[in-house]
Design brief:
Mean pLDDT: 87
Number of strands: 8
Strand content: 5-15%
Helix content: 40-55%
Structural class: alpha+beta
Shape: elongated
Largest sheet: 4 strands, antiparallel
Radius of gyration: 31 Å
Number of helices: 10
């Protein structure tokens, strides 16, 4: 939702952060502060009449561009204070150089102001909609509509020709372990190191000839050679089961992300529907003589 924050990930931000990041890498880890929450207007750093406050740091910490993974709280705080000092010093220099004057800058300022206002509006409205109760209801409704689905766990050996597949099948029927033969012969680099193990999959996850053969097998059974566009396969089914339904805790983040996206779209679409929008860049529509309705030229 914080579209503005992502848009301002510029090379300038990277340069401003570079020095504090390097310094933080050499700073010994400090334990997090245990004192009471400091006042927002508490001054943390000063450069002449320029100050950096707790409120400044709190705002910077919300910017995804400044997430600073891999640092402890003390290191992040040090980086953010230095970043805000550099940012304010740079802004002061830009003001003195009259960078903020002129229509081009005014248009940019208006653009980013509009984006920030929209971000804040969406944040506030979405919080009213995306509640724990709404997330649980969507999960429950989705689970109720789900049909039981069978899945299998299978291994396979992929070779170039039917002759190669039958030679491998002869070894397996002679008592050799399927996984061992797969590790030696299979051309599927993604599974051969695991003895050809493909894990669990539903029928729609595989190409049709492979899926048809796999789901006809019983656990422990090995197929005859099966041809697909990838080559020739031998398939061994290890297990069959009904696909388990993931718990709410497992799906919570995805459910909330879906609700958030939908809420944002609904809010924006509602704003468009309520507004009288005219596209002046499009050709004018001429009335249809019979219906009186506008028709496209």
């Amino acid at each position: 939702m914080r579209a503005l924050s992502f848009l301002i990930r510029s090379s300038a931000v990277a340069l401003i952060l570079a020095a504090p990041l390097a310094a933080a890498a050499q700073t010994p880890a400090q334990p997090p502060a245990t004192a009471a929450t400091p006042a927002p207007d508490k001054v943390l750093a000063r450069a002449g009449d320029i100050t950096v406050t707790e409120a400044d740091i709190a705002m910077a910490a919300e910017d995804p561009a400044l997430s600073l993974p891999g640092m402890n709280d003390a290191q992040k705080r040090d980086v953010l204070i230095n970043y805000m000092l550099d940012l304010k010093l740079g802004a002061r220099a830009a003001e003195q150089a009259k960078v903020g004057e002129g229509p081009d800058f005014a248009r940019k300022l208006a653009y980013f102001r509009d984006k920030l206002l929209l971000d804040e509006h969406l944040d506030r409205e979405v919080k009213k909609i995306v509640t724990p109760e709404a997330a649980k209801k969507l999960y429950d409704d989705t689970v109720k509509a789900m049909k039981p689905e069978e899945e299998v766990r299978a291994r396979h050996i992929l070779v170039e020709s039917e002759e190669d597949a039958r030679k491998a099948l002869t070894r397996i029927k002679g008592g050799e372990d399927f996984a061992k033969v797969a590790g030696e012969l299979s051309n599927d680099s993604g599974s051969k190191t695991d003895g050809g193990d493909l894990g669990f999959f539903t029928k729609d996850r595989m190409v049709e000839p492979f899926a048809e053969a796999a789901f006809k097998l019983t656990p422990g059974q090995v197929s005859d050679p099966v041809k697909t566009q990838f080559g020739w396969h031998l398939i061994k089914v290890e297990e069959k089961r009904i696909k388990p339904i993931p718990s709410f805790d497992e799906m919570k983040e995805q459910v909330e992300a879906y609700l958030t996206r939908k809420a944002q779209q609904d809010i924006v679409l509602s704003l468009r529907q309520k507004a009288k929008i005219e596209r002046l860049d499009e050709p004018a529509k001429t009335p249809d003589a019979k219906s009186g309705e506008p028709k496209k030229p």
